[in-house]
Amino acid sequence: MVKTLNIRTVFVAIMVLFMTVAKAQDVNFSQYFNNPTYYNPAYVGLSMGFKARLNMRKQWTGLSGDFQSFSFSADIADRNIPGAGGVGFIATSVVEGTGKIKTTEIGIIPSVRIHVNRYSIVQVGALVSIMSRQVDWNNLVFSDQLDPILGNTGPSSFTKPSNQRPIIFPDFSIGGIYQLKLSHVIGTFGMAVHHITQPNQSFLQDVAPLPRKWVAHMDFIIDFQRNRGYYNRARDIKLNPGILFESQSNLNLFSIGANAYISNVYFGAWYRNEIFNGTSFANIIWMAGVNIPFNENSRIKLMYSFDMNVSQNTNFTGPSHEVSLILELDNARLINPNRLRSSRRSRSSLECSPF
What we know:
There is one protein chain. The protein contains 2 helices and 18 strands. Strand 6 (146-147) and strand 7 form a beta hairpin. By secondary structure, it is mainly beta. It has a 14-stranded antiparallel barrel. A two-stranded antiparallel sheet has the order 6-7. The chain has helices at residues 7-21, 36-39, and strands spanning 50-59, 67-77, 84-96, 101-117, 120-135, 146-147, 151-152, 167-182, 185-194, 213-223, 227-228, 234-235, 237-248, 251-262, 265-276, 279-295, 298-309, 320-329. The radius of gyration is 23 Å and the shape is globular.
C-alpha cells in the first residue's frame, strides 16, 4: 500500500539530522527572567540571599519528536568578602527528538561585585562547566532513507561510528551587569558571551566547534506607590518591561515584552522572533504565576507560560509549555555576618529581591 510521507515526519527527521551533523544551537527558555544565570552568569548573587530555580520546558508538542529542557540553578550572595558577589551552581539537560540527542551541562559560577555608589553596581560572573552530548544512532533517520511517496524505505548507507560513547568537553562563559536605582525604578543592563573557546562537539572524526553565543539584555522594574485596594488592604503594583537579544552562528533571536505584579499575582505578555536562514519564526508568549510568601524575607514563586507559534510556515509544530518554580530566602548567608566587620556594608538600596 502506497502512503504519502507526512510533512511532520520529514520535519523531525531533517531537524534531528541537522542538529547531529551541523552547528547546534543552545536551547532557549521563554521565561528567561526566571532563569537568569543560564543567560548571564553575572546574575549570581546580584541580590541578597539564596535562590533556587527549577525550569521545565516542553517544546514542539504538535510533533512526535518534541524537545524537553530542564534547568536547575542555585546561587547565594556573599557581601562579607571584599569584592565578592556570590557563588552559584547550574545544571541543564536537553532531550531532543524523543531521546535521540541528549545534552547535559553542569557548572559552577563565581561572581565579583564593584560598588560604583550607593545606587549603582557593576557585577561580573564566569561559568566553568562540563558538557556531555550523546546520540542514539540506532533510532536516527537519515536523508537516504526518505522517499517522498513511500516514506522511510529502509536502512541507511551511513556508517555508524565505532565509538558511540558520549562526547565530553569543558566550556566557559562570562558576563557582566550594570544595575542602578533611580527613585522607584531599577534598571539592569547586561551582556554575556557563551562557549568562549568554541569547544569541538563533533560526534564523528571531524571538527564541529560549538558556536559562540552572544547575549544582550535590558529591563526596568517600576515599583509604583502602594495604592489602597478594597477593604483598605495595601496592594503592591510593579511593572517589569524588558528585552533580550541572542546571536549564535546564523541564528538571531529577540524577545520583547513585560511582566506585571499585583498583590502576589504575576502575568505577562512577550513577543519573540527568530530569524533563521531568512525564515521568520514568531511566537507570542503568555505568562501567569503566583507568589507565595512565607514571611517578608522568604517566598516561593510558581509560574507558567504558553507559547503560541504564529508563523504560517511552522505553526504545525504546536505550542510550547514552560513551568518555573523558584525559592527565595533573603536572609540566607554564605558566611555569618556577625563575625566580620564588613557586614555593616552588606545592605544597600539594591540588595532586596525586586520582583
